[in-house]
Amino acid sequence: MQAPARTPSASAAPKGEIRALTGLRGIAALYVVFFHANGQYRMPDLIRPFIRHGYMAVDLFFILSGFVMAMTYAGLFEKGFCFKSFKQFLLLRLARIYPLFALMTVLTAILIATVLSKTYSFDHLGTALLFNFTLTHVWGFANSVVPPSWSISTEWAAYLLFPAGVFIGLRLPRRWSLLGLFVSFAVLAVIAYGPAWIAQTEMRHRHGPLDIASSYAIGTTLRCLASFYIGLVAYRFRDVIPARGAGVFFLLIIGLLCLKDTDLLLIPAFALLIMSLSTDEGWVARLLQNRVCYWLGIISYALYLIHDLVLRIVFKAIPAAGFHYPMLTALIASIVISLALATLSHYGYEKPSRKIFRNMVGRWFESHPAPAAPQDQSSTEAKTAKAA
């Protein structure tokens, strides 16, 4: 493994893979699985406060995604905005996220109309599919056919604004970058504790202040955009935080996740942890680099998209058909099946389809040369912390 060089240039992309960030994403994905499983199976009281905070793993995804996008693609806009570079960036991101998303959307829609019809009601499915397939459903248009895909829709908005984020967060003088950071934290504070219409869900119906995921809430997309920008700035200032700080931030995050109403404290803690892991050094990095964490990171996107459907089938559809088993058995089966299907989906469909689409994009841009851009980042990004 070759650790990234710590250079002052915001546009310089590290050569190689930050395995610790891949492992971190894998742990976060598994955390989301347990968070959603907690809605079906009552976890032990000792760990329930920690499990109930699992929605914050998505904010970690957003910050990590901003960091990785800056590391991987900021160089495309080193000389300012270029439409060809922007088109290349969007096509590469679609090649990464769309094939498995589209497959899961089709599969879930079919199951909603058949196997899940008694346990999963979904109004106006046909209309919803139109907005889901354009990744705009959470912009106030329709509910997510694949429930976890709300975050993919919001991140698509972040991709569309990526050149602006690069300009403000990485190119302008640092004072403007930091001002944007302050605004991002202010936005998160407003959507967490502001008027109910921003979240479309009253606080008493949320697991915590930032548990906002409604398709019709402006706070849902703002939650992503603010955290994504924080990730961009974290990349710019990554040299400030030494690798030895990772242990402190890791333990701090574990403690905060066990406490209520700590969402706004977790956001900077996530950013600081990611920054401290960017050298891939230290005991926390070594912990996240182990084979299990790394494997989870590799399959994290598939696990994120697949697990909710598995939970619905195991906990609801099968019992509704007359087959009953202990709830603990259902929990274990759901997790094992989700991990198995995610592994099969990643290696059997997600990875091959991503390669095919990236090759198509690469051939198109070879025949239509763009202005000078950094080295081919698609392979680097595929190895890095697999941004969803």
3D architecture notes:
With 388 residues, the chain is mainly α. It has one domain (19-383). Helices cover 65% and strands 0% of the residues. The chain is built from 17 helices and no strands. α8 (174-193) runs antiparallel to α10. The two termini are 23 Å apart.
Uncertain spans, ≥5 residues at pLDDT below 50? Answer: 1-15, 371-388
Q: Major sheet, described briefly? A: none
Radius of gyration: 20 Å
Number of distinct helices: 17
How many DSSP-defined strands? Answer: 0
C-alpha termini separation? 23 Å
Structure classification: mainly alpha
Can you tell me the number of structural domains? Answer: 1
Q: How would you spell out the order of helices and strands?
A: HHHHHHHHHHHHHHHHH
Give the amount of beta strand, in percent.
under 5%
Average pLDDT for all residues: 90
Fraction of helical residues:
55-70%
Outline type: globular
Quickly list its features.
388 residues; mainly alpha; disordered N terminus
Compact description:
The chain is mainly α and 388 residues long. The chain contains 17 helices and no strands.
